[in-house]
Amino acid sequence: MEANSQIGRAESHILHTYNRYPIVLDYGEGVYLYDTEGKKYLDFAAGIAVQALGYGNREYQEALKGQIDKLMHTSNLYYNQPTIEAAEKICAASGLDRVFFTNSGTEAIEGAIKAAKKYAYAKDGRTDHEIIAMEHSFHGRSLGALAVTGNAHYREPFEPLPGIVKFAEYNNLESVKRLVNGKTCAIILETVQGEGGIYPAEEDFLRGVKEICGQEDILMILDEIQCGMGRTGHMFAWQKYGVKPDIMACAKALGCGVPVGAFVMAEHVAKASLKPGDHGTTYGGNPFVGAAVSKVFDIFEGQKILKHVREISECLTRQLEQMREEYGVVKERRGLGLMQGLELEASVPAGEVSAKALEQGLILITAGNNVLRFVPPLVIEKQHVDEMAGKLRAVLGQY
Ligand SMILES: *Cc1c(COP(=O)(O)O)cnc(C)c1O
């Protein structure tokens, strides 16, 4: 069917909360997507950092199909095998101890916040605890996650938001210290800020936050929803810094396409926070998503994905740095591994560049108004990086 007619139908019935690109995607193969008119796109967005394994991974697909035939859902009133295995693999990979599976990233943040509040409440019985979050952060769209999201545009229409949240400047330890007091129960941050423009944490900053948390018995919550699952060349980005959080939030590539997230905590938090009855979910961690997460960890190991990301990301860094030198409109390159950004001059809207890239057959997304975001499937090869650079050059050359 004609794409325009499909788009017309979508715009008549789907709530207009996204200004979508005018293509209807049909199927994927490797690191390419195809629309319903047969046009091929090189995918450097991976469904917003979700499709780490690209499209059509046989082993993954067979595992999911097998689980569909066996059992999709049981509720959390019973145990199921795939989810037990998935939890074990997350704990082994992170060195953290206990997992709660959610259906999305924003829910993982909600759970992490609830755990931190309960932990503080169990200590002193007070209900006026504060959370320190970061400016330009993004943690999700549900009300609790929105409350710690440092973007006024997303927050304002929905205020008042739950909880007492104060915002510090990312990578500025003094600004965090100024906000810490006896009521602070948690400090939440992305190890690499995604939506906010691809800003990795500085090592001293992350270590400093960890130290404050240790001294004051404040919980450190790291949002690894975008930067986790191998994207930086480490299973979790905090492992690059050697700074282990008390609670970590995961989602996006955790299930490589099935809707699943998790918040994962150290035993000392688990022992003193959420108890039976304090938290729950109907779908969360059902056998279907458990099978996906479990298989994702197996494939990461079997295909040595982390090693591959470390190698291939050097090609990406090189190409982006070259473009920064060649094109005056590119101000800066930032990022880690296969999570990178090119900041453009304010006069060049990143959305316009990504729309033009789409015409060239390249799927690219933005982070904020002036940053192009590169979060391709982790299985890309050098030839794909070169192909991306060729297509992007054709666009940047127009400015
Ligand atoms: C995407 C994202 C979220 C929200 O995840 P959803 O699955 O969309 O709810 C939270 N934090 C970060 C860092 C993200 O990138």
Description:
This protein has two domains: 148 residues, Alpha-Beta Complex (Aspartate Aminotransferase, domain 1), CATH 3.90.1150; 232 residues, Aspartate Aminotransferase, domain 2. The mean pLDDT is 97. The longest helix is centred in the last third of the chain and has 22 residues. The chain is of the alpha/beta class. 41% of the residues lie in helices and 19% in strands. The chain is built from 15 helices and 17 strands. The chain has a seven-stranded mixed beta sheet, sandwiched between helices. The structure holds pyridoxal-5'-phosphate. The site of pyridoxal-5'-phosphate has 14 residues, from helix 5. The site of pyridoxal-5'-phosphate (PLP) has 14 residues, from helix 5.
- Sheet bearing the most strands, described? 7 strands, mixed
- What is the end-to-end distance? 35 Å
What is the CATH class of the largest domain? Alpha Beta
Structural classification: alpha/beta
- What would CATH call the homologous superfamily of the largest domain? Type I PLP-dependent aspartate aminotransferase-like (Major domain)
Which strand order does the major sheet show? 4-12-11-10-7-5-6
> What's the pLDDT, averaged over the residues?
97
Percentage of helical residues? 40-55%
Count of alpha and pi helical runs: 15
CATH architecture of the largest domain: 3-Layer(aba) Sandwich
Beta-strand fraction estimate: 15-25%
General form: globular
Please, how many domains? 2
| Cα Rg | 21 Å
Provide the low-confidence segments as ranges.
Answer: none
What is the strand tally?
17
Give the bound compounds.
pyridoxal-5'-phosphate
CATH topology of the largest domain: Aspartate Aminotransferase, domain 2
